[in-house]
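Please decode residue identities from the backbone states below.
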């Protein structure tokens, strides 16, 4: 069949199987595991051959993986950039090879938006705002000392969740973020940083954790310090993965802002559209909600992840 113009062999809208190279961040959290499962299952379902790599949260490994997909002349490359910066060179190499790139989950800060076809993922600033709005409602005008467990330094979710949260609290002087540090989106990172926060700050009222896993680590540290999570120290997190929702239902977390990892089906749809030569929106925002303790009890039985 004639070259589909995507510059790659096969797959380009013809009847051969589409080959996708996916460079995943790592396996750092329950969210990431669920995201990987969604992508692998959706590829299977869509009849797309998936080449998959886990970068252990290292940008150089993701860049290596993308280069190997270019060498293998895959039909499409998709990835979740572990941090926002440093992608232009390798994305230009993919563009020169005629291989379309789809961003999922996290964003890049490239000025040249022609380097990728679309960015499918949550609005992290909105997630930070939702967390802030709950805090304002929950604490009102009470003087409130907040500690923040940031996600991976330089990642879009960490930057944006911090920005949205601060934007909402900026209007009220009774809220003070007394400490803020990265726990790298891991349970162990959240636990270690929370231990230090507890040693340095006698009266913490609230933990804002950029994901459930760091919130779960903070719960371990709070309990080890003889305090009651969800009561002595309240906790608000983002993700709404099963373990987080269980802690919310158990009253150890007070509120969770959902960030859906189930991007697989949309990613495969977009891929087929792009390779058929049709256009897609440059930005596709995922649908997501929030959960109170009561809502978590109701939702838990039917949660997919
Ligand atoms: C957000 C995603 C974040 C999750 C974390 O879309 O990039 O990375 O919130 C995960 O749990 O590690």
């Amino acid at each position: 069949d004639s070259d589909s113009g995507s510059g790659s062999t096969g797959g380009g809208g013809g009847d051969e199987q589409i080959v996708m190279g996916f460079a995943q961040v790592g396996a750092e959290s329950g969210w990431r595991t669920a995201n990987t499962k969604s992508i692998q299952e959706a590829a299977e379902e869509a009849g797309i051959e998936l080449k998959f790599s886990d970068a252990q949260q290292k940008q150089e490994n993701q860049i290596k993986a993308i280069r190997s997909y270019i060498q293998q002349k895959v039909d499409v490359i998709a990835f979740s950039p572990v941090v926002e910066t440093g992608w232009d060179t390798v994305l230009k190499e993919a563009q020169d090879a005629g291989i379309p790139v789809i961003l999922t989950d996290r964003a890049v800060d490239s000025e040249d938006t022609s380097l990728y076809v679309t960015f499918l993922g949550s609005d992290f600033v909105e997630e930070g705002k939702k967390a802030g709005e709950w805090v304002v409602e929950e604490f009102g005008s009470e003087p409130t000392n907040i500690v923040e467990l940031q996600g991976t330094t330089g990642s879009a979710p960490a930057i944006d969740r911090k920005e949205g949260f601060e934007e909402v609290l900026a209007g009220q002087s009774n809220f003070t973020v007394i400490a803020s540090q990265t726990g790298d989106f891991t349970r162990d990172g959240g636990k270690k940083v929370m231990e230090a926060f507890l040693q340095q700050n006698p009266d913490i009222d609230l933990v804002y954790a950029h994901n459930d896993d760091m919130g779960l680590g903070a719960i371990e540290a709070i309990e080890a310090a003889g305090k009651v999570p969800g009561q002595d120290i309240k906790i608000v997190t983002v993700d709404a993965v099963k373990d987080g929702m269980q802690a919310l239902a158990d009253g150890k977390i007070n509120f969770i802002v959902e960030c859906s990892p189930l991007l697989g089906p949309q990613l495969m749809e977009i891929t087929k559209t792009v390779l058929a030569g049709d256009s897609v929106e440059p930005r596709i925002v995922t649908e997501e909600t929030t959960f109170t303790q009561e809502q978590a009890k109701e939702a838990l039985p039917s949660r997919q992840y």
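Observation: The radius of gyration is 21 Å.
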